[in-house]
Amino acid sequence: MKRPRKPGGGAGAPKARDGSSPSEPSGRPAPAKASPGAAGSEGAAPLALGEAAEGGGAMSRGALAAMSLAALGVVYGDIGTSPLYAVRECFHGLHRIAISPGNVHGVLSLIFWSLAVVVTIKYVVFILRVDNKGEGGIFALMALLSRSRDGLAGRSMKAVVLAGIFGAALLYGDGIITPAISVLSAVEGLEVATPGATRYVVPITCAVLAGLFFIQRRGTARIGKVFGPVMLLWFSALSLLGLAEVVKSPEILTAVNPLHAVRFFVENRMHGIVVLGSVVLCITGGEALYADLGHFNRPSIRLSWTAVVWPALLLNYFGQGAILLSRPETAVNPFYALAPRSLLIPLVVLATAATVIASQAMISGVYSLTQQAMQLGFLPRLRIVHTSSHVRGQIYLPFVNALLFTACVILVLAFKNSSGLAGAYGLAVTATMGITSILFFFVLTRALHRSQWRAAVLVGLFLLFDLSYFGANLLKLFDGGWLTLAVGAALTALMTSWRDGRAALAESFARERVTEEEFLDSIEASRPVRIPGTAVFMSVSPQGVPVALLHHYRFNHVLPQRILFVSLLTADSPTVPENERVTVRVLGQGFYRVIARMGYMETPRVPHVLQLAARHGLFVDPDSATYYLGRESLLTTGAARMSHWRKSLFVFMARNAQNPMSFFGIPPNRVVELGIQLSV
To answer: Rounded distance, CA 41 to CA 37, Å?
Structure first.
């Protein structure tokens, strides 16, 4: 690494050592002490079991009903469209099993108990009770565990963080497959209505996907209002279609007896385990249920599940089982076989609308996941567009949107039918569910101090299902399951390389450290020329002097009258209240340190931070200040902390990260960039 020379301008000039501990090049905000990679945090808010997600008070019945209706379109879109392909894959898919009363009752029993244990008991009853200030999902569990005083440390914490990163990465694979398989399975209903429509299924699917991803740039705040009513119509249709067959064959309801599931495995042995990999398709939206907690609350999610979604799904699944026993030839598409022929086209239209809504929910979830990963320091800066000024979470990431669309179209063209895609579906979801169960156990025992043996019994039940599903889906590894694992592994490599590369940069800066006291003493001794104006130096660490200021002073030998060190730190909570966001410290001689804390669901904006600083007596016009940013040239010649290919990957991501001016909302015509050469 090239060490900077001492700044000129007289005796007492500071040594060229930087006190920052950067999280990434070019002023990227560093995670606060309570980030998931840390073992603990001073001053962290006390943990509580579901303290924040209730919305702060009791809701009226009308408000609860309205929120529950909205939850149908966002939370349950994925799991609500599973009847399109779950039963069909068991009896007509690649690993189909013969249609017989024992097999049909066995599959329905597995579906019933999967929905009961995995979705209802695991997610709706227990895991929903744990939130990180209102937010759910894998990153929320990681944040809860990291900030607890009795959390894991050392290798154990690193292993948990790595597992969490891998689980989050697998959700990207789910985000690629869900739109493809959902829309494709809905459009395949045209084949039932008109056999000659087979050749149009793939083109229509690609057209629907193109329209879906195209409208992302416009936001979904307006059209989102119709999601709930459309999904309510969809679940009503599921119920009525299934009920008509259940009434004809009420004996199908005996499948709720778990002995049918036991007999199914005894009679079919290995083939039964393979079919279990198709049964798991009925619960693929379970993880999204928890991840969407921040957009709703527990009562609304639970009410919509118990009152609408669960009954509708069970009726439809049992109806499909009944029609299979009476008409085995309908195995090619038992869902559409439930409908009268005159209603097939309207049902295809409704199913397509439902799958578009399910896909929209998954796409929005990927956006939110990406934003969280950026704020927590697992991904480089990407352009974020806020599509609504009043609806929280309405964001659009052009780069991510383009990647998702391209991947979805490639999948549709490669597999050509939903049965082929079903082989790739499920492996990522079951792995993520297993990781969630493990993280939940550590949160219960370390963060919430629950009894270890009781937690072990509960989580052991969850893992019995999770690992059984995962093992069954491993058998489909070469049928397409490798795809989601490859996506997860690639994204894990990206995230860990970015995290470790940032840590290596932090060490490089730490070796060049200059404290505030040292720098101010040197300024007082040398008394450089001070020119009018306010300079804002982005400081990636709340301590020490930014290296950009050292370079500026070394070459120019002058300083503005007012100099602000602005640091943006990411908290382990989704949002930070406005009155707690900014702190200002007067350093003397016209120097100020401004520290802003941002939630991991928020996008940093430096001008807004400066406006909030006025509450603390520091008045700055964001449009008249000059912003100094460091532009690092990264080399892979540093110490062997990382392998060379990971260093090269980190450097590539750093060079292609979004411009810090856009990411931080800094006026581009007020920016001065200073080049710095660093080794990682």
So the answer is: 11
d(CA 171, CA 383): 20
Q: Is residue 25 part of a domain?
A: no
215: enclosing H helix or E strand: none
Which residues is 535 bridged to in the sheet?
563, 626
What's the CA gap between 474 and 40, in Å, rounded? 36
Q: What would the pLDDT profile of 225-251 be if each residue is shown by its tens digit?
A: 778 899 999 999 999 999 999 999 999
Burial of 647 (0-12, 13-18, 19+ CB in 10 A): buried
Q: Contact at 8 Å (CB) between 93 and 264?
A: no
Indicate whether 531 belongs to any domain: yes
Q: Are residues 208 and 268 in the same domain?
A: yes
Tell me if 258 sits within 8 A of 109, measured CB to CB.
yes
Ramachandran bin of 350, using left for φ above 0, alpha for ψ from -120 to 50, beta for the remaining angles: alpha
Instruction: Provide CB contacts within 8 A for 278, sequence distance 6+.
Output: 86, 89, 90, 93, 95, 422, 426
Instruction: Give the contacts of 199 (CB within 8 A, at least 6 positions apart).
Output: none
**Which of 207, 126, 158 has its CA nearest to residue 436?**
126
| Total of domains in the chain | 2
Q: Which of the residue ranges 144-148, 207-211, 530-534 would you say has the lowest mean pLDDT? A: 144-148
Question: Could you tell me how far CA 659 lies from the centroid of its own chain?
Answer: 23
Are both 472 and 571 inside the same structural domain?
no
Question: 15-29, 199-213, 249-263, 332-346 — which is least confidently predicted?
Answer: 15-29
Most confident of 281-295, 309-323, 393-407: 309-323
544: left (phi over 0), alpha (psi -120 to 50) or beta: left
Shared domain check, 666 and 534? yes
Cβ–Cβ under 8 Å, residues 519 and 2: no
Mean pLDDT over residues 304-309, rounded? 94
Residues 466 and 517 in one domain: no
> What CATH number has the domain bearing residue 269?
1.20.1740.10
Kindly report, residue by residue over 167-176, the tens digit of the pLDDT: 888 888 888 8
Residue that is last in its domain, among 473, 499, 525: 499
Q: Say whether both 343 and 415 belong to one domain.
A: yes
Show the domain range for 192: 71-499
One domain for residues 444 and 573: no
* Residue 49 maps to a domain: no
Q: Is residue 40 a part of any domain in this protein?
A: no
CA neighbours closer than 13 Å in the CB half-sphere of residue 214: 6
Regarding whether 251 and 179 lie in a shared domain, the answer is yes
Q: Are residues 472 and 537 in the same domain?
A: no
pLDDT per position as a tens digit, 448-473: 888 999 999 999 999 999 999 999 98
Residue 670's pLDDT is what? 87
